[in-house]
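Q: What residues go here?
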């Protein structure tokens, strides 16, 4: 992929922690991690500036801990630490591909990551380094989706790529309902009104207020990150932030 073929110069890739599990039920699946790193490396070498936010659900999910009786704030901090583990794993995988990387954490842990500083993050991106944002926003009660939206705006990303386990946004669960239909494009308001499972309402509202588009796509198919960056919105996935809602 040549630099000129992509409509985006700087992107933020949002990965769920579950994306790193592969077909497993817990933890990190090294071959899956390597595949994702290879795809990110391809884009970086083409001149795309990349930032990454990874969830922690493959290790610990704060909301789940709270439902089991844990203090919500404590559970959320544990979830933030899980994102740091995933971020370090991704950093290692990317550096094995020959990339320069930086992990920036919203919670200070100087032995393993830089503190999050917006200007420093932007400078890293300008130098061609992949920046991995860890520990969410550093605050409980906020998801890594909200962290992705916030960081994307802070670094002036042109788009959020939301990698999931389904090939876009549907009006029902396609695994349970064979009549479920995929949206080709969605407005922010339709996502909020229909309570569609794209990102949490805080993240969607942040993107809406700042007119930041979100491309939702299936990470399971090799090459889909490339396709999303190429701007092939009509061919797969769903674009949130369009002027009207259109079925695929």
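A:
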């Amino acid at each position: 992929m040549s630099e000129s073929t992509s409509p985006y110069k700087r992107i933020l890739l949002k990965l769920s922690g579950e994306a790193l599990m592969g077909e497993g039920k817990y933890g990190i699946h090294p071959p899956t991690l390597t595949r994702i790193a290879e795809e990110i490396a391809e884009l970086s070498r083409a001149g795309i500036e990349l930032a990454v936010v990874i969830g922690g659900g493959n290790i610990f999910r704060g909301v789940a801990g709270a439902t089991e009786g844990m203090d919500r704030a404590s559970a959320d901090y544990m979830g933030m630490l899980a994102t740091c583990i995933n971020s370090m794993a991704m950093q290692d995988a990317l550096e094995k591909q020959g990339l320069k990387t930086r992990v920036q954490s919203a919670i200070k842990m100087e032995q393993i990551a830089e503190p999050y500083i917006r200007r420093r993050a932007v400078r890293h991106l300008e130098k061609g380094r992949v920046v991995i944002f860890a520990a969410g926003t550093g605050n409980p009660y906020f998801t890594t989706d909200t962290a992705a939206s916030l960081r994307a705006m802070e670094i002036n990303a042109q788009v959020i790529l939301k990698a999931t386990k389904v090939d876009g946004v549907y009006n029902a669960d396609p695994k349970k309902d064979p009549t479920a239909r995929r949206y080709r494009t969605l407005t922010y308001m339709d996502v909020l009104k229909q309570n569609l499972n794209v990102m949490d309402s805080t993240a969607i509202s942040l993107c809406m207020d700042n007119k930041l588009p979100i491309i939702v796509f299936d990470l399971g198919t090799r090459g889909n990150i490339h396709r999303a960056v190429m701007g092939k919105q009509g061919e797969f996935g769903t674009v949130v932030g369009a002027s009207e809602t259109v079925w695929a």
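A: Context that may help when evaluating the design: The chain has one domain: 3-247. Residues 41 and 97 are 7 Å apart (CA to CA).
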